[in-house]
Structures are given as C-alpha cells and as structure tokens.
Amino acid sequence: MAKRVTRRDFITRTGLAVGGLAIAPSILAACGGSDSSSSAGGGEGGGDLAFDNWTLYIDKPYDDLYGAGGTLDEFQKSTGTKIAYTENYNDNNEYFAKIQPLLSKGEPIGPTIIAPTFWMAGRLLGLDWLDKLPLDKIPNAKNLITNLQKPPSDPTGEFSLPWQSGMAGIAYNQSVTGRELRSVADLWDPAFKGKIGMLTEMRDTIGLIAMSEGIDLAKPEFDRFQPAFAKLDEQVKNGQIRQFTGNDYVDDLEQGNYAACIGWSGDVVQLSKSNPNIKFVVPESGGTLWFDTMVLPKGASQEKIDAAAKWMNYVYDPVNAARITETVQYISPVQGVQDELRKRGADASALADSQLLFPDATTLANLQTWGTLDEAQEQLFDEEFARISGA
Amino acid sequence: MAKADTGGNTGLRKGRFAPYGLLSPGIIWLLLFFLVPVAMLAKASLSTKPSRFAEPVFSWDFSNYSTALSQYSDEFVRSFVYAGIATVLAILIGYPLAYWIATSGGRWKNFLIGLVVVPFFTSYLIRTIAWTSILQDDGPVVALYRLLPWVGADGRILATPMAVVGGLTYNFLSFMILPIYVSLEKIDFRLTDAAADLGSPPFRAFRKVIFPLSLPGVFAGSLLVFIPAAGDYLNARYLGSPQTSMIGTVVQNKFLVQFDYPQAAALSLVLMVIITALVLIYSKFLGTEGLAV
Predict the structure, then answer these.
(1) Coil, strand, or helix at residue A279?
(2) pLDDT per position as a tens digit, A330-381
(3) Domain extents for chain B?
(4) Residue A47, C-beta contacts closer than 8 angstroms, at least 6 positions apart
(5) Most distant pair of Cα atoms in chain B: their distance
(6) Which class is domain A49-159+296-316?
(7) Are B117 and A93 within 8 A, CB to CB?
(8) Could you say which of 3.30.360.10, 3.30.300.30, 1.10.3720.10, 3.30.70.20 is the CATH number of the domain covering B66-286?
(9) CA of B113: which chain A residue's CA is closest?
(10) Cα(B286)–Cα(B215) distance, rounded to whole angstroms?
C-alpha cells in the first residue's frame, strides 16, 4: 500500500517546494552578477551617466544593447564616456508614481537622463524637478527640427530635448475590416461592433476623437472637450469599443480581436513588415504628433550632467541619429537623417521615403500636438477619461 | 499550555514567557507588515490633497468614503459577484479532482498534486495573457464556440464577463484544490465502509460523513480563492472590457494614474471591511469550529 502522506508532511513539503520556487529567481538573479539593467532609482553606479529609456527605442546589434557597432558602443568608444543604458521607462504615469516620492523630497532618483513624453516633461518642469541642460555643451542641438526646439511643453527650450517623435492615428487590420479606413467616423461603423480598441494614453485617444469633432488641441480646456468625451462614452456604452490597452494593442490587432484601433506609427510600420494587412492611416480630421524627451531630473552631479551633454550631442549628429532611426522607425527629431538613410542604401533608403518617418508638409499640416494642461485641467481630463474607460 | 506553571517551580516560571518569545517573530511580522500599513492606509483615506501632486494632509475627511461607495458601487458589486461565481466554480471543479486524487491517486498522489502546482512555475501575468492568445477571435476555440446554437457568427469570449470569471477561476483553482485535498487526505475512508455496513447508499455516506469532514478544506479554499479574486484587476484588465472593470482596476488607476491616494486608500479599506464581513458570515454559516476565525 502507498505510504500515507500526513497533513504535516504535506504542508512541510509543499512549503519547501513553494518557498524554493519563490526564492529561486532571486538566487539566480544574484548569481547573474553584473547585469547592467536595474530598476528605476538604481540606475546610478556603473557609468559616467545613466539613461533610463523606453524599450525598443535604440539599436541593439546582435540583440545586445552594447553590441559592437551599435550606438552605445560607438558612443563609449568615441567619447570615452561610460553610459549605463536601461529600459525601465514603461509608462509615463507609472514612472511618475515611482519618482514622485523622491523628487518631491529633493532626493536624486538614480538615472541621469529619463525619457518622459513631452507632456510629462512639461509636468516635471512645472513642478521644478528638472535641472537646466548645459546647452553650450550640446552644439549639435542646432540640427534639431525647428518646431521641436522650443515646444510649448518647454517654452524656453532649456530643460528638455527630444528623443524620438511619432504620430497616433488609426491602425487597422484589413483582413478583418475588408475595406480601407479613412476617418475616426469609420471606427464607429456598426459592422465593427466590439472590435474597436482605444489607447489608455488619454491624449492620443481623446485627441483623435476631439479632432474629428472639430476641436483643436493647442489650448485644451475641459469644457470644450465635452463632445469628445460624450462620443467616447457613447461608444463604450453601446459596446462598439472592446477594450482600452497600452502597447499591447499590437497583439489584439494581429490576432483579429481588433478590426481597428488607435495606434502609434512606429509600431504599425514594424508590424506591417510581417503582416501587410495591418495598416496605419492618419485620419482625415487629423492625428496627434507627440515626442518623447530627454530631461535631467534634479540631483545629479555636475560630472554626470556634463556626461549627459556629451551623449545628447552625440545622438544629434545625423549619422548617429540615422543609425537609431533605422531600427526604431519613428520620426527622428534630427535634420539630415533622411539623407543619411539614403546614403546607407538598401532597406534604410526605403525608410527614407516613408511618410510615417518623414512626413511631408501636407501630412504635418494634418497633425496636432497637445497644448499644456495645467494641474487642475489635467485632473479633470484624467478623471473623466478613467470614468469612461472603466478604471 | 499555561496550566503547567502553577507549581511555583522557578524553572517552569522562567518558561512562562517562552511562548511569547516563540510567538514574537510572528507578532513583529504582523505589526510591521499588517497593522502599520493598515494604519497608514486608514490615515491616508482620511486625508485631503491641497493640490494634485502634493502630499496628502490628514484632515478627518470622510468624503473619500462616501465617494467610494456612491461612485463605485457598480465595480464593488461586480467584484463580489465575479469572485463569488469563481469561488463556486472552483469548488465544483476542484472538489471532485481533489477527491479523486485523495481516494484513487494511489502511489501517484504526490505526482498528481505536483501537477496541480505546476502552473505556478509560470508567472501569474503570463498565464493570464496566454488566455488572450487561446481565446483570440480568430482562434479555434472561438470557432468552436460559435457553433453553439445560441451564439452568433460574431460571438466572442474575450472582453466578456465570462472570460473574466473564467480567468479568475483558472488562476485561483489550485488554492481550492490543495486545502480540500489536505482535508480529504486525513479522513479515514473506512468510515464509508462502516456507513455501507449500516445500510447507507454511497452518495448518502458521502453527503453525511465525508463531505462534512472535508468542510474545513472547502472553507479554507473558498477564502483563498474569494479574497484575492475580489481584489484582482489583472483578469479584468486583460480578459475583460470597460464594462467588466472590477474594484481593483479602479484602485490601480487611482494610485498610479491619478495619484488620488486618499480615494484609493478609502476604496481599499472599504474592500477590506466588506471582505471581512463576508468571511465572518460565511464562517458562521459553515460552522467550522476547527478554524479559529
């Protein structure tokens, strides 16, 4: 007969097994040694400067951030400055929640440079949590596209510099829609009921709908945006909208759960490579133009700030900027990247002709960037958006 | 345990404090990681924020509670209904499985129980997201589902309450099976033979003898499923739609997007109080004297 397992044995063994499972990852992690990635706030140590950026936002030769011939490797070789590059910037609001307790007490957060989207950079600036950039040590900043030099989020242009820029528009899967989409109104086609996705990023979702209602985004006021919120509310309540997601909309689009959704240009460019049915269009009524920035949260030493300036200067050289653009496929803030890509030939030169990477005047005229929301206004927008999206 | 030291023996008297010494790690743990956080939560829930990004200031502001109850009653009700259905489903699925392993598992018992735990080798988040691939609209599962007579050609499983409840049931099922198994495992099954000898049909023997003896397991399992399920937000986030959001979704958004700590704290405390009340009612109802609740 099988040996009976007593209750005590069982609990001991299960406890050991579960405990072992729980501990194992941390032991493994400890054995991993000098893994250069670390959590937000831990980015110090290591290099002369630390840059905490979004994922998939820089070239990675051989799938290694510091792979030979890549931007990080070349930068370290040519300047002798060591950079600790991490990819922990996942969501503006989440990141803010992590750094807020430190910065509000005047304590340093770790990374020298972080990559908030322009409106979040504006918020950090408004809270006086950013250090001035040593612009005199970043001569290449003159290469920046003019309208990104002194954006409304940073009117003097002394506290933030752009990293990459992109647009939000309509992404759709033509094998599900069976036709081309052109406008935001197409999203409300009853044929796509329950197959429409929205972004949790309030400014992109409300921005696109607002433009379709004829509301401009330059001077946003909550009262004027009521028709946009009402439209969104109506489409959530009648079941047209299936879900609000972050970057994971990409999977829903590929799996046919979404017929169409609001999406970001660079993602869709990358997706359409493997699935030509997936398309991106800037709606007739307009799309949003956004950009992520590089800013210096207060508390870094002068040496680190100088090293950060070296890095910024380096990536604003069109040759280096083109290397990054070739991988990330967003709009580069640096002039001359288009020519550089043409020089590189093959796949790179095909990118040089893409409207999504190098929008011409007509496309640009159809894009709008959000004006700054003050604290009270932003709270109204966020609360209403959360209420409608079921959060 | 305290009876022994009435003898006046100094050696024994010294030992009077031994139990407290032994208990101290647990008590310190509870103080540090339960009572202190709950006190902080209570303090935050009665605070107001002078401006959006400022630290909350304690002010006996009870309005956070009235807003929590009035504005989010739908989410509260939904959370408890979903968690309740998931608990019942977990009992219906988990009990027969645990029963079968305990009675017919033979020498494979440990292996089978091991299999129950295997899903924990993958992270909770990954397991939940995996369901979005399995249940995708273009996938085989949904294709079969659409063949059902009452489901239309555009029927779907994802982004419905069914998917959320299913996800909750799946994710917490092991927490139901393990305690039920433990309580069944220690039952002497010769009792069923005795019942049969006394003329009881097998099902009646199960109902009158085995099931009552296994109730502590069912009770423990129900708590382990219901409590985390009621506060869960991942299943609603990935498998649900805006119409299936649960209270966890709201708390997460209040904390991480809106920085409304007072409101989030009030919602969390209301959730805790309701869960505690439900658990107390449930324990009265089940009458499990074995578990000191």
Answers:
(1) strand
(2) 999 999 999 999 998 878 888 898 888 999 888 889 999 999 898 899 999 9
(3) 66-286
(4) A81, A82, A83, A84, A307
(5) 83
(6) alpha beta
(7) no
(8) 1.10.3720.10
(9) A14
(10) 8
Q: What CATH code is assigned to A167-288+368-388?
A: 3.40.190.10
DSSP A86-133: E-----HHHHHHHHHHHHTTT---S-SEE--BHHHHHHHHHTT-BPPP
CA distance B230 to A297: 38
pLDDT mean over A133-156:
92
Residue ranges, comma separated, of all CATH 3.40.190.10 domains in chain A are: 49-159+296-316, 167-288+368-388
Contact predicate A123/A96, CB 8 Å: yes
CA distance A217 to A286: 11
Q: Does B52 touch chain A (CB under 8 A)?
A: yes
Nearest to A242 among B110, B159, B178 (CB): B159
- Whole-complex ipTM: 0.83
Q: Which residues contact A221 (CB under 8 A, 6 or more apart)?
A: A377
Global pTM reads 0.82
- Compute CA distances B192 → B196, B198, B203, whole Å: 6, 10, 10
Q: Which residues pair with B292 in a beta bridge?
A: none
pLDDT tens-place string over residues A72-111: 999 999 999 999 999 998 889 889 989 998 999 999 999 9
**The tokens of A127 are what?**
């809270």
Q: Which residues of B touch A18 (CB under 8 A)?
A: 117, 120
A124: which 2 tokens?
């950090």
**Quick check: B120 contacting A, CB < 8 Å?**
yes
Q: Are residues A388 and A236 in contact, defined by beta-carbon separation less than 8 angstroms?
A: yes
Q: Are B88 and B168 in contact (CB under 8 A)?
A: no
Share of chain A above pLDDT 90, in %: 67
Q: Which two tokens stand for residue A380?
A: 């109204």
Parallel, antiparallel, or unpaired for β A160-173 and A367-368? unpaired
- CB within 8 Å of A59: residues ≥ 6 apart: A70, A71, A323, A324, A326, A327, A328
Min Cα distance B241 → chain A (Å) is: 5
